[in-house]
Amino acid sequence: MTLRMVLSAFIITLLLLELGQCQKKEDSSPRKLARQKSKGKAKGRVSAGGESKASSSMTEAKPEPVQVQTFITQVLEKGKFQRVGDMLTVPAGHLLELRCKGKPVQWGVPQYVEEENDGRLRVTQHERHGSLILANSTGADTGEYTCYPLHCEDKDCRKEYDRAVRVFIFFSDPRELFVPSPHYYEVIQLRSNRATTLPCQVTSPLAQVTLHREFPPEEVKVDGTEISFDVKKGFTIYRPRPHHAGSLFCIGSLGGLRQSSTKYMLIYVNYPVSPPSPVIKASSSSVHIGENLQVSCSVVGEADVVIDFTWEFPGQQIGRPLYTEDGVHPMRSGGQLRQQSESVLLVEEVRDVDQGKYSCTAQNLEGSRTVSTMVKVLPARGSAKLKKL
């Protein structure tokens, strides 16, 4: 019995020694040491103030905001949606309901829809999308609808224009091919330095549209280079010239319906390429009391460009009236037809108060520039001889 107890104790002792050796090996394994080392680094040293040095030297990195792809869907019926492209056609009179994924978003609508305040338009922001509902739609609602994702910091939000999603919506009306206009005639400037668009906007992308001149009555050729047509914009004249001016209108046809648009009165304006460069010159930099003074301001520039001159002069302080002589003279420079515009300021019987700075501002449709010159007033001639006598 005693021998059995001794053997049992001996075996238990051996098992305990073996278990200790295994534990020691596990503690000294590379994986265990690495875990302990990383844990020690995470804890760091604690300063006298009780702050961890590791945490004080590291700033919390704010997570980057995740940009959600923005897109517009049309609600067809309850639980049924359709993702829209850059164009959409909705029959006039139908309810339009759009959803734009994002939080928050802001909607942009055609000017007519925005200005009209009869309760047909309702915009709502939900948890994950913004919705736009337009009831009792008409052909006049045709135009571009835009969803702008908003970037907000605290309460300050701004539109993210580069992530905006746009869709042009036609509200097709079987009785109105063109978007209604309150004007019978619309005046449009044909600027020589930029393209001009005649907004013959149709309510259906299927309408066939042609451009016509009222006097003499004729169809205007649309070649896609000088003039082109876009169903969302109208007719664009890329390089307006004097022969494009006049009374024009559009004719649209769809099925058995044929209608005319608003008439556009096109007025050609030769816009200069830059502001004028005036030159100012006085008849004399010094003038005696009682004599006359002339200060000229001239501009050499493009033909048929109107230059407006304005003056500032010392005599204005005492109410001296402005007397000027203006003129335009054609000239040639480098083989090109140019024109010289000039304004001459006349000051009769100069007085002491007329001494000082004379400034001329020349202005055209592109801007203005100002030039100045100084004039000195001397005593009247012969006054020195009288003093000697």
Summarize the model shown:
With 389 residues, this protein is mostly beta strands. The protein is built from five helices and 27 strands.
Mean pLDDT: 83
* C-alpha Rg (nearest Å): 41 Å
Number of strands: 27
Unreliable stretches = 28-59
Structural class: mainly beta
Q: Which percent bin holds the helix content?
A: 10-25%
The main β sheet shows up as: 6 strands, mixed
Total DSSP helices? 5
The termini sit apart by: 163 Å
Strand residues, percent: 35-45%
Q: Please tell me what the overall shape is.
A: flat
Annotate the secondary structure layout.
Elements: H1 2-27, H2 30-43, H3 53-56, E1 72-77, E2 80-83, E3 87-91, E4 96-101, E5 105-108, H4 111-115, E6 121-125, E7 129-134, E8 143-153, E9 156-159, E10 165-172, E11 185-191, E12 196-198, E13 208-213, E14 218-219, E15 227-230, E16 234-237, E17 246-254, E18 257-260, E19 263-269, E20 279-282, E21 286-288, E22 293-302, E23 308-312, E24 324-333, E25 336-347, E26 356-364, E27 367-378, H5 383-388
Parallel strand pairs: 3-10, 11-19, 21-27
Antiparallel strand pairs: 1-2, 1-4, 4-7, 5-8, 6-7, 8-9, 8-10, 12-16, 13-14, 13-17, 15-16, 17-18, 17-19, 20-22, 22-25, 23-26, 24-25, 26-27
Structure description:
By secondary structure, the chain is mainly beta. The chain is built from 5 helices and 27 strands. The strands form 6 sheets. Strands 11, 13, 14, 17, 18 and 19 form a 6-stranded mixed beta sheet that branches. A 5-stranded antiparallel beta sheet has the order 2-1-4-7-6, with no helix packed on it. A hairpin with a 3-residue loop joins β6 and β7. The longest helix is centred in the N-terminal third of the chain and has 26 residues. The chain is flat and about 140 Å long. The relative contact order is 0.08. About 8% of the residues have low confidence.
